[in-house]
Amino acid sequence: MTVRIGGVAGWLLARLRRRQAARPHLELVERIALGPRQWLALVEAEGRKILVATSAEGGPAFYPLDQPPRNAGARELRTTRVSW
């Protein structure tokens, strides 16, 4: 025997199930234009935050923001640039 839920309760449950299944893994959090063909974007991909920078002169650069520095005890912090 199956139980069917109708009316508003059934509609709400069906809508919640669709929303959970369609959750995106990649989201543009914010984008800022710095000039012509130059911008910064904050992207979240599966819980990780990445800063994406573009310029007119070259390809995009990707900076992971949620990774701790490798040598946290060092006085000088170096940024890690990831390019594809």
What are the defining features of this structure?
18% helix, elongated, 84 residues, 4-stranded antiparallel beta sheet, alpha+beta
Structure description:
The chain has 84 residues and is of the alpha+beta class. 18% of the residues lie in helices and 35% in strands. The protein has one domain. The radius of gyration is 21 Å and the shape is elongated. Strand 3 and strand 4 form a beta hairpin. Strands 1-2-3-4 form a four-stranded antiparallel sheet, with no helix packed on it. The protein contains one helix and four strands.
Topology (elements, then pairings):
Layout lengths: L6 H15 L4 E10 L2 E8 L2 E7 L6 E4 L20
Antiparallel strand pairs: 1-2, 2-3, 3-4
Number of domains: 1
Low-confidence segments = none
> Which descriptor suits the 3D outline?
elongated
Count of alpha/pi helices: 1
Indicate the percent of residues in helices.
Answer: 10-25%
**Count of individual beta strands:** 4
Q: What structural category do the secondary elements indicate?
A: alpha+beta
Q: Give the overall average pLDDT.
A: 76
Beta-strand portion reads 25-35%
Radius of gyration: 21 Å
Separation, N- and C-terminal Cα atoms: 55 Å
Care to give the gist of this entry?
With 84 residues, the chain is of the alpha+beta class. The protein has one helix at 7-21; strands at 26-35, 38-45, 48-54, 61-64.
